[in-house]
Amino acid sequence: MAVENWQEFLKQTDGRLAELRPGIPGVMKGFGEIAKSAIGTGALEPKQKELIAISIGVAARCDACLGYHAKACIKYGVTREELMEALGVAVYMGGGPSLMYAAEALSAFDALLEEAK
């Protein structure tokens, strides 16, 4: 799926997640804890971990992952050049389908970076 407006797409996804949250509150809370723990500073910095996350989003073909992790990459100061290298690794690991999603990840990053300025 080609997302035209990343902010609107993420807003819609947030709404869908908000509808899901009351039905599975323990799962949602647990997932949030996993996310905080996984991205927190350790041997790798959050910036590096977000580059990994967006690359996995490419390989898994997860549109929402691209948007959320593009925003997080921006938050942690990822440059376009750093993202490009990470996307190259994602394409290497995921082949042609990952190449198509790498283009979408770059679109998400560029659009959300422009809005963050």
Number of domains: 1
Mean pLDDT: 95
Percentage of residues in strands: under 5%
CATH topology: AhpD-like
Q: Assign a percent range to the helix content.
A: over 70%
CATH superfamily: AhpD-like
Rg (C-alpha, Å): 14 Å
Give the helix tally.
5
Compute the separation of the termini in Å: 26 Å
Largest sheet: none
Would you give an account of this structure?
By secondary structure, the chain is mainly α. It has a single domain, classed as AhpD-like (Up-down Bundle). Helix content is 81%, strand content 0%. The protein contains five helices and no strands. Helix 3 (46-60) packs antiparallel against helix 4, helix 3 (46-60) crosses helix 5 (80-116) and helix 4 (63-75) crosses helix 5. The mean pLDDT is 95.
